[in-house]
Design goal:
heterodimer, A: 152 residues, alpha+beta, Ubiquitin-like (UB roll), 5-stranded mixed beta sheet, 15% strand, B: 741 residues, Aldehyde Oxidoreductase, domain 4
């Protein structure tokens, strides 16, 4: 069936089943790379995207269940918060393999959209559902804090 | 990203023949005993043009056999090449490793890329630069000593200029390394020693194509492998027709017990996989050990390959009191965030595989064996994937792609392992037991040290002479056998990596017991056997210090003769404001402790000393609150990259220490998801401070695996906090709680 979704402001028609996870529609039909397959069970956060201001685990969310625009990291040039995060992650060199990073940035954006001056604990809580295996957490924390400063 | 070759000549050769052209270097290592004293990787790949190409458009293309996986090696190589060639760093392209084109540097492992690959590049560049200077000298008719170089422009004292881009030709670097030109001295570096930003990060933080998982080709098909329910299970029956009638399914591949489903869309392949699991019947082997404890006992009791190491005898020095400890660790998973992935295509008789494994040449070798084709019929192309901390499923999925692509010629096949495939089928870090007995004399000096190490091998990587180490080759209709079990020899060591303490004892013996039986698949994982050995050695050092009423820092310094080792210990003591004989603190129902530990990785590479502060709550949960680390690795190429590796390694090792254990029983591996295998999350991230010591006059040594000492620091902090000790990793709440209840 043809399902319409809107990604970073652009409409897309996806020809798939209603229950197909949003992740595959994004990656294979909408030219999105940032949302990653990590676990398929909503446990690692690598597939996180934003819908209506909320972080969504796209690997367990049916494509037909989405109403509203889907924001992904690819939109960073048009989104001041994502742009600040992009810059800060480069400045702090806050990645090793980087596979978790887009998901981290999505969770961070949701936080920064709601809270302009989060504490370390608030940042850690907001990102606690995103797993990193390379151990880059302390740099990710620094990068989010730098983005907060940039946006102030 | 889809065009790996910037060098148009190579691209032409590659495209026009579809074959591997040996004009620079073949896939076989060149064993040339007549070569001068050159770095080993250069000796094995003597042709200078197999390393680099000076492109007339103003670029320098570098063909490294080492691969990037987020450790920053491409950036370090850019720094090295820019400095040795005297060009701006923007001109340097590090091309991904492609078999038949890049020099064969084996596997990117063991923190050896800068030390070996980087050194080979320095020599290759020095010779290229020297050759260009000679050419300029002839064309300008001035002696070489009158020439200087800036960004590839060669200027003579008389003001005349030449430049690399006009002097270069395709023949220029068709020459063998001869060691005539030596790399630069330390005072002439512009980029080496600077925290140059990583070249791979921008794509990773902007949603660009950065990984093999992101590559797309027109008409690409999606495949999933239907793995057996457990190791060594055999496929008895499979209802093909049900699967073939599913939406989007274009076929299956069945080869003995290797089974795969192929579909047009990714979700269709996943649906087919889930249905295929229901439609297949397997004969189970039920031959795994019942549990961890049983297996650890079997490892000690079974006949093993026993070897002795580091034997020292001084009958005049004997101790009065002997103490000991038996330290154990479970199987640990690599657990990369992204499961393994490969894209393969068979075209004109050549199978090309895009993949993120750590060694393209060793991988090619085993794929060739499985497909039973000549080596030039398989090309392995490196693309980054999720984190590589040793041998994950990355190599295996490449063979999966090759086996499937063979049945669907001229179409790109993308094979993505599912989360449970990765957890259940990747080769783990071996379970181990390390038993230590040590004696002290009356002055509190260690006189005797005996250490028994029980472990499986720590490397079953592909690329061996005999056998095939890729799992799907074991399940084919004509199954292949895994390679004979070997142990990486000392001084680097495999199971006995860091098995010989760096401290000096008059009587010493290390007995290595290599366990041959291998019911649970194991292979290389960051630090190999060093993690268990350092856990055991550094825990014993603290026990002995306590027995001798000595401060743990002072006690270590007293037994260490290695000055570089002493310096990192002194540095971390200063950073952490270490006070002699720190005492436990009890506050608000929590226990607090501080511990330290030290090692030099492999006794050859980075020196790292660590202090940790921990808190232990009433349930026995440990939280590492603060970490200080001092590290030294000779000449530093990229300080921030070095720090990033140390910080990340320490955090990863806290996770191994506190949380990680692969679960299994007779019927199979019971770890399938992150719920079964928790790793450290943000809530448990400590404050962490890393400081580096630079020794520009010492050669650069590997920095990627300085992480292991933190296990000892945590264990020692726990011992201080509780007056007890947990000998069996992970240091999980039930075990910790027993120490104080």
């Amino acid at each position: 069936m043809a399902i319409q979704i809107q990604v970073n402001g652009k409409p897309h028609i996806v020809d798939t089943e209603a229950q197909t996870p949003l992740l595959y529609a994004l990656r294979n039909d909408c030219d999105i790379n940032s949302a990653k397959y990590g676990c398929g069970a909503g446990q690692c956060g690598a597939c996180t995207v934003i819908v209506n201001g909320n972080p969504i685990r796209s690997c367990i969310t049916p494509v037909s269940a989405i109403s509203g625009n889907i924001t992904t990291l690819e939109n960073y040039q048009n989104d001041p918060v994502l742009k600040a995060l992009n810059k800060a992650f480069i400045t702090e060199q806050a990645a090793q393999c980087g596979f978790c990073i887009a998901g981290m940035m999505m969770s961070a954006k949701v936080l920064l959209d709601k809270n302009k001056n989060p504490s370390d604990t608030q940042i850690k809580n907001a990102l606690n559902g995103n797993l990193c295996r390379c151990g880059t957490y302390s740099r990710i924390l620094k990068a989010v804090k730098l983005a907060v400063k940039e946006l102030a | 990203m889809n065009a790996p070759f910037k060098n148009s000549r190579r691209q032409f050769l590659f495209q026009s023949t579809g074959l591997v052209i040996g004009f620079t270097v073949g896939s076989e290592l060149v064993a040339d005993n007549t070569a001068p004293d050159l770095p080993i990787d250069l000796k094995n790949n003597l042709n200078i043009n197999s390393w680099l190409y000076v492109d007339p458009t103003g670029k320098i293309d570098v063909y490294s056999g080492k691969v990037e996986f987020g450790q920053g090696i491409a950036t370090a190589f850019r720094q090295i090449v820019a400095d040795e060639m005297d060009v701006n760093i923007e001109r340097v392209n590090i091309l991904p490793c492609v078999t038949g084109i890049a020099p064969n540097e084996g596997v990117t492992s063991g923190s050896q890329s800068v030390e070996f690959g980087g050194l080979a590049l320095r020599y290759a560049c020095a010779q290229a630069r020297g050759t260009l200077l000679e050419k300029a000298s002839m064309s300008l008719n001035v002696p070489v000593s009158d020439l200087s170089i800036k960004d590839g422009v060669i200027t003579a004292k008389n003001g005349e200029t030449a430049n690399y881009w006009r002097l270069t030709s395709t023949e220029l670097l068709q020459q063998k390394a001869d060691g005539k030109y030596k790399p630069k001295g330390i005072n002439n570096f512009q980029y080496i020693g600077q925290s140059v930003q990583r070249i791979d990060i921008p794509a990773k933080v902007s949603g660009s194509v950065a990984y093999v998982q992101d590559m797309k080709f027109p008409g690409m098909l999606h495949a999933r492998v239907v793995r057996p329910p457990a190791p060594r299970a055999k496929l008895i029956s499979f209802n093909e027709s049900v699967i073939k009638s599913m939406p989007g399914v274009v076929g299956i591949v069945k080869n003995g017990s290797f089974l795969a489903v192929i579909a047009k869309r990714e979700e269709q392949a996943i649906n087919a996989l889930n249905e295929a699991k229901k439609q297949s019947k397997w004969e189970m082997a039920n031959d795994l050990p019942n549990n961890q404890a049983e297996w650890l006992k079997t490892m000690i009791d079974s006949p093993n390959l026993d070897t002795e190491h580091g034997v020292k005898k001084d009958p005049s020095k004997q101790g009065k009191k002997t103490i000991g400890g038996d330290f154990t660790k479970p199987f640990i998973a690599h657990a990369s965030i992204g499961p393994s992935c490969a894209i393969g295509i068979l075209k004109d008789g050549v199978t090309t595989i895009y993949n993120h494994a750590q060694g393209m040449y060793p991988l090619q070798r085993d794929i060739v064996k499985a497909l039973q084709v000549p080596p030039e019929k398989v090309i392995c192309v490196h693309r980054e994937g999720s984190g590589m901390y040793g041998q994950s499923g990355a190599d295996d999925v490449a063979l999966d792609a090759a086996l499937i692509a063979r049945e669907f010629p001229n179409q790109h096949i993308r094979v993505q392992w599912m989360r449970d495939d990765e957890f259940k089928w990747e080769p783990y870090n071996s379970a181990m037991t390390v038993k230590i007995r040590a004696s002290l004399d009356e002055s509190g000096t260690i006189t005797n040290w005996t250490q028994d190490i029980y472990s499986n091998t720590h490397s079953t990587r592909p690329g061996e002479k005999e056998g095939n180490n890729l799992i799907s080759s074991w399940y084919m209709a004509n199954p292949q056998k895994r390679s004979p079990v070997t142990n990486i020899p000392l001084p680097a060591g495999g199971s006995h990596r860091n098995g010989i303490p760096l401290y000096s004892f008059p009587n010493q013996q290390i007995n290595n017991h290599l366990v041959q039986e291998m019911p649970i698949r194991v292979s290389a994982f960051r630090t190999l056997g060093a993690f268990a050995n350092i856990f055991a050695i550094e825990s014993m050092m603290d026990k002995l210090a306590k027995e001798a009423n000595a401060d743990p820092v002072e006690f270590r310094l007293r037994h260490l003769q290695n000055q570089r080792g002493k310096d990192v210990i002194l540095k971390v003591a200063e950073m952490s404001n270490w006070k002699p004989n720190p005492k436990r603190v009890k506050k608000n129902g929590k226990l607090y402790g501080r511990g330290m530990a030290f090692s030099q990785y492999k006794n050859l590479q980075v020196y790292c000393a660590v202090v940790t502060d921990i808190e232990v709550d009433a349930n026995g949960k440990i939280r590492v609150t603060d970490v200080w680390a001092a590290a030294e690795a000779g000449l530093i190429i990229n300080p921030d990259g070095f720090k990033n590796q140390i910080e990340g390694g320490l955090i990863q090792t806290i996770s191994w220490t506190l949380f990680e254990e692969v679960k299994f029983n007779k019927t199979g591996i019971q770890t399938a998801s992150w719920a079964d295998y928790p790793i450290l999350r943000f809530e448990d991230v400590p404050n962490i401070q890393v400081e580096l010591i630079n020794r520009p006059n010492e050669k650069s040594i590997g920095v990627g695996e300085g992480n292991a000492p933190i296990v000892g620091a945590i264990a020692n902090a726990l011992a201080m906090a509780t007056n007890g000790r947990v000998y069996d990793l992970p240091l999980s709440p039930p075990k910790v709680k027993k120490l104080f209840t």
